[in-house]
Amino acid sequence: MESIFHEKQEGSLCAQHCLNNLLQGEYFTPVDLSSIAHQLDEEERMRMAEGGMASEEYRTFLQQPSGNMDDSGFFSIQVISNALRVWGLELILFNSREYQSLMINPINEKAFICNYKEHWFTIRKLGQQWFNLNSLLTGPELISDTYLALFLAQLQQEGYSIFVIRGNLPECEAEQILGIMRVQQQQRPRLIGEDEAQTSAGRSAALSQSEVVFGVEDEVVDEDDELKKALALSRQDIDVEDEEADLRRAIQLSMQGAVMSNKSSESEMGNVKSGSQAAGSAAGGQRAGQNEALTAEELRKRRQAYFDRQQQQAQPNIPQQPDTKSSGGSGSVNIGSEEDQQQKPSQ
């Protein structure tokens, strides 16, 4: 198989590849085929000029682009036919009535050229075996004798124009080697770009799979983050509730301490008991409704102010002790003074 010459597709130069694969060598270049196309254009121009260079048909012909070649590298069947004529080869339409009337078995021919929508490729017999030398394939494709007729019929159904090559093809290395031995093809060649397409498809599939995996991982990470946030918020709520509970307990303890201190102070103050108890209960009732919104520092300050007021109220009612240094007469004077002090409030 390595001895078979096979040009692969480059641009739109399928006509060049078709001719070189047929002749089994680099016989034609794009420049060679372009010169043949220009010669054909000049011959057509001269034939049109015979009807008059001032005619409308001639001016229209000059304005039209070449029908034998274009900028993409396509060449017409006339260019291929003239190129093969240099080697003494002739093209015959395979599905024409003249050829079909001959009823020739395709395996007895030497080569075929096929064309469909500006694409050209060669089917040639090398030794005793047929090969598809399509430039769009990665290599020559072995065709069995029984499959050749079916392959040509399939190409006709797909719209291909098939031409039979008549004449003596130039000698080549592949013809000599395959003339003494037969080859077996283990793996059929693929279309050029098919491996790349499968590779790119595999890459895209792997990429999409990895994206799915990453997406699942991202979703798991997002769920973990949301769970952590929810736990953090719940902890904050618990901490806030604990702080509020501690504050309520501190307020209750302070209230109990205030009540106990009030009771002890009332027992010592005697006459001020009822007034201070009423004031303490009223202040305690008001404080019970307000202390929940107070801080510990404000609560301490208010308690201190409350005790200060009680001490100020209790100082005028404390009895004065007699002066032990004074004489007996002075005792009567002090008693009189106490009676005067008791009568002053009544006055």
Please explain how this structure is put together.
The protein has 347 residues and is of the alpha+beta class. Helices cover 59% and strands 9% of the residues. It is built from eleven helices and six strands. The protein has a six-stranded antiparallel beta sheet with strand order 1-6-2-3-4-5, with helices on both faces. A hairpin with a 2-residue loop joins strand 3 (119-126) and strand 4. The chain is elongated. The relative contact order is 0.07. Residues 261-293 and 318-347 have low confidence and may be disordered.
Query: What is the helical fraction, as a range of percent?
Result: 55-70%
- H/E element sequence: HHHHEHEEEEHEHHHHH
DSSP, total strands: 6
Shape: elongated
Q: What percentage of the residues does DSSP assign to strands (E)?
A: 5-15%
Tally of alpha and pi helices: 11
Mean pLDDT: 74
Low-confidence stretches: 261-293, 318-347
Rg over CA atoms, rounded to whole Å, is 59 Å
Quote the distance from N terminus to C terminus: 145 Å
Q: Please list the strands of the largest sheet in the order they lie side by side.
A: 1-6-2-3-4-5
Helix and strand content put the structural class at: alpha+beta
Biggest sheet details: 6 strands, antiparallel
Organism: Zoarces viviparus (Viviparous eelpout)
Catalytic activity: Thiol-dependent hydrolysis of ester, thioester, amide, peptide and isopeptide bonds formed by the C-terminal Gly of ubiquitin (a 76-residue protein attached to proteins as an intracellular targeting signal)
InterPro entries: Ataxin-3 (IPR033865), Josephin (IPR006155), UIM_dom (IPR003903)
Domain Josephin: 1-180
